[in-house]
Amino acid sequence: MAAAAVQHLAGHEAVAARYRDVDRAYGETRDLRLLGFMFFLVSDCILFSSFIFAYVYLRVSAPTWPPIVDGHQLPWFDTSFAAMNSVVLFGSGVTMHFALENWKHLNTRKFNGWLIATIVLGIGFLLGQAHEYSVVNISWQGSTMGASFFTLTGMHGFHVFIGVCYLAILGIQANRGVYTSSKYFGLTAGTLYWHFVDVIWVALFSLFYLW
Predict the structure, then answer these.
(1) Which of 14, 142, 172, 206 is deepest in the core (most CB within 10 A)?
(2) CATH number for position 159
C-alpha cells in the first residue's frame, strides 16, 4: 500500500516536472518569437517609410499641389469620408485590445464578441476604401499624386486584408484550445499587427487628407 502511494506520488512529481520544463521552454521561445515578430514589424515600417519619403519628396518638389494634368488641377481627396472610414479602423484597434484582455481572463464569450467586432470593422474599412477607389476622380497613371495615393493606400489595404484573415485564423485556433490563459503568443502577435496597421494609417491619413 505504501509502495503504491510512493509510486503514485513519484508519478505526479514527474508530470509536474515535465510541465515545468514545457512552461520554461514556452517562455524562452515566446521571447524569441516576440523579438522576431518585432523585427518583422520594423521591416514593414521601413517599407512604408521608403514610399512615404518618396511621396513627400515628390510633393515638395512639385511647383503646384495638387498637380496639373492635361491643363486641369487634380481635386483634393474626400477628407470627410476618409475620416469616417478612419474611425472605423481605429475603433477596430480598441475592440482588438478588449478581445486580448478578455482572453487573458479566459472570458471566451466576450473574447469572441470583441474579435468578431474587430474583423467586421476591418472588413468595413476595406469596403470603405473600395468605395473611395470607385469614386475618386484621379487615376493611377498620369500623376505622382495618383500613383502615390493608390500605391500607399493599396499597400496598407492589403495589410488590413491579411490582418483580417490572420485574426479569423486566431479565432478558430483559440476556440479549438490552441491557447490558454498563460500561453497566447499568437493572440499577442495578432494584436500587435492590428495596432501596427492603425499606426500606419495615421501617417497615411495625415499625408493624403490633412496635409
Answers:
(1) 142
(2) 1.20.120.80
